[in-house]
C-alpha cells in the first residue's frame, strides 16, 4: 500500500526590532493602563507595534511587559503572530523570553540584570507572522526579474504619482483655504487618509457640498507639509535645519486631523531632537496631544536638568498650560534619587 502525505501550506515572515526604553525611572510613574509604543513595524503584510508597559501589578509584584499589537483588522482570519523578547545587556542576551503575544518580567529582575544603563535599556523583539494558506493554493511562479508588472509606471511609486497629482492639481474637486492661501485637492484622497476630512467632506457637515473649505488654526506652510504627507506618506520638511520646529507644529496639526502616521513621525523627530532648551515646551505639547513616548523622554530630560530647564521660557508655559504634569516630574526626580 502506498503512503499518502498531506501538509498545510504556510507563509511566514520574521522581523527583529531593537526597542530602546529611555527614561526608565520616569516610566515607572506610568499608570497600569499606560503604554509606550515602538515605531510601526511592517511584518507579514501587516502593521504592528510592540507596546511597553512599566507598571503592571500581579501577585504583589511589579512587572514590566511587552505586548504585540496588530494595528489593523487582519485580511484573513487565520493570521497568527508570535513575539519573542531578549533583554540586551552589554551585548549579552538575558532571560526575558517568551513565545506569546505578551512577554513579562519582574521589575526587580530587570534592575538586577544590569541592563539598565544611563536610565535606559534595550529589548530585542522578534516578531514572527504566520499565515496559513488553503490546501488548494499553489505557489505562483515568480515573474522574471527583468519584466515589470503591467501599469507599473516604469517603476515609479504610487506616492510619486499621487505627489504629482497634488502638485499639478489635476482633477481637484475641492479647494482648501488656509489663511487666504488656496490648496487644490481631491476629496476622496483626503477622506481616505483622515477621519476628520471624511466627516467634513462626506458627512453631514456643510463642507460636503462646498467646493471651498476654510481650514483654521494651521499655518499655510504647516498645512502644505501635512497635505504632502497625506498624498505621499513623506515629510521632507522634517529633514531640514528647522525640522524640530516643523515637527512641533505638524504634531498639533496631525492630532487635529487624525493623522496617526504623521503624528508618530513628528514624535520620533521630537524625541531625537529633545534638548534642555526645548524639553519643557515639547513636554507641554506631548501632554496636550497624547504622546506618551515623547512625554517620557521630556520628563527624563527635565528630571536630569531641573534647574536649567526651570530657567527656560518653555517651563513657564508648561506650568501654565499643564500644571498636572508637575506630579510626573516630581515622581521622576524622586526616582532618580532613589
Automatic annotation (TrEMBL):
Q: Which PANTHER family match?
A: BTB/POZ AND MATH DOMAIN-CONTAINING PROTEIN 1, OS06G0251200 PROTEIN
Q: What is this protein called?
A: BTB domain-containing protein
Q: State the pathway, as annotated in the record.
A: Protein modification; protein ubiquitination
Q: Where is the MATH domain?
A: 14-127
Write down the InterPro entries for this protein, in alphabetical order.
BACK_BPM_SPOP, BPM1-6, BTB/POZ_dom, MATH/TRAF_dom, SKP1/BTB/POZ_sf, TRAF-like
Gene Ontology biological process terms, A to Z: protein ubiquitination
Q: Which species is listed as the source?
A: Oryza glumipatula
Q: To which protein family does this belong?
A: Belongs to the Tdpoz family.
Record domain BTB: where: 172-239
Family annotation (Pfam families): BACK_BPM_SPOP, BTB
Signal peptide range equals: none
Amino acid at each position: 500500500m502506498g503512503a499518502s502525505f498531506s501538509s498545510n501550506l504556510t507563509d511566514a515572515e520574521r522581523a527583529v526590532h531593537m526597542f530602546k526604553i529611555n527614561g526608565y525611572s520616569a516610566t515607572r510613574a506610568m499608570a497600569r493602563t499606560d503604554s509606550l509604543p515602538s515605531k510601526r513595524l511592517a511584518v507579514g503584510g501587516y502593521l504592528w507595534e510592540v507596546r511597553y508597559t512599566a507598571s503592571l501589578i500581579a501577585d504583589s509584584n511589579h512587572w514590566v511587559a511587552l505586548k504585540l499589537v496588530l494595528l489593523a483588522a487582519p485580511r484573513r482570519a487565520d493570521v497568527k503572530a508570535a513575539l519573542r523578547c531578549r533583554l540586551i545587556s552589554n551585548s549579552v542576551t538575558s532571560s526575558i523570553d517568551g513565545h506569546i503575544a505578551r512577554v513579562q518580567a519582574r521589575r526587580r529582575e530587570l534592575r538586577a540584570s544590569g541592563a539598565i544603563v544611563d536610565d535606559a535599556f534595550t529589548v530585542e523583539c522578534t516578531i514572527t507572522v504566520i499565515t496559513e494558506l488553503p490546501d488548494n493554493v499553489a505557489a505562483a511562479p515568480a515573474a522574471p526579474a527583468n519584466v515589470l508588472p503591467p501599469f507599473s509606471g516604469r517603476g515609479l511609486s504610487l506616492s510619486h504619482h499621487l505627489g504629482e497629482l497634488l502638485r499639478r492639481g489635476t482633477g481637484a474637486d475641492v479647494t482648501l483655504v488656509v489663511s487666504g492661501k488656496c490648496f487644490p485637492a481631491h476629496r476622496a484622497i483626503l477622506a481616505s487618509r483622515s477621519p476628520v476630512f471624511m466627516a467634513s467632506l462626506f458627512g453631514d457637515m456643510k463642507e460636503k457640498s462646498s467646493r471651498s473649505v476654510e481650514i483654521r488654526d494651521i499655518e499655510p506652510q504647516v498645512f502644505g507639509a501635512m497635505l504632502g504627507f497625506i498624498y505621499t506618506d513623506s515629510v521632507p520638511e522634517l529633514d531640514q535645519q528647522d525640522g524640530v520646529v516643523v515637527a512641533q507644529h505638524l504634531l498639533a496639526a496631525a492630532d487635529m486631523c487624525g493623522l496617526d502616521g504623521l503624528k508618530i513621525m513628528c514624535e520620533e523627530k521630537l524625541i531625537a531632537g529633545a534638548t534642555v532648551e526645548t524639553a519643557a515646551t515639547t513636554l507641554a505639547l506631548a501632554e496636550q496631544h497624547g504622546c506618551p513616548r515623547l512625554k517620557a523622554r521630556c520628563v527624563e530630560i527635565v528630571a536630569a536638568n531641573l534647574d536649567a530647564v526651570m530657567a527656560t521660557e518653555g517651563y513657564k508655559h508648561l506650568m501654565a498650560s499643564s500644571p498636572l504634569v508637575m506630579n510626573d516630574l516630581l515622581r521622576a526626580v524622586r526616582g532618580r534619587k532613589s
